[in-house]
Amino acid sequence: MTSPHTLKTIRQQSFDGNGLTDATSRDNWEKKDSQDAFARAREFVGTLLAEEAISYIPKEIDQVIREKNELPRRRAAGYL
């Protein structure tokens, strides 16, 4: 925060958030949904878990890794 560059540009930068933070006024927050960060995080995780998992490892390699490390077989990404 004490870097001259930071002090010069800090007010020019914007952070739109990650979906879990809420920078609206309290009045707007109360009108909207009044969710705290924990509730928003729970909703966000639920959305992620509902999506189909994407595997970037070929099925054969995944199987070898799981067998060598005694990991359960995958249910997502069409592996079962």
How confident overall, as mean pLDDT?
80
Question: Shape from CA axes?
Answer: flat
The poorly predicted ranges are none
The run of helices and strands is HHHH
Helix content: 40-55%
Radius of gyration: 21 Å
Q: Could you describe the 3D structure shown?
A:
This protein is an all-alpha fold. 46% of the residues lie in helices and 0% in strands.
How do you describe this structure in short?
It contains 4 helices and no strands. It has 80 residues and is mainly alpha-helical.
How does the SSE layout of this entry go?
Blueprint: H1 4-9, H2 26-32, H3 37-50, H4 59-68
Using brief descriptors, characterize the structure shown.
single chain, 80 residues, mainly alpha
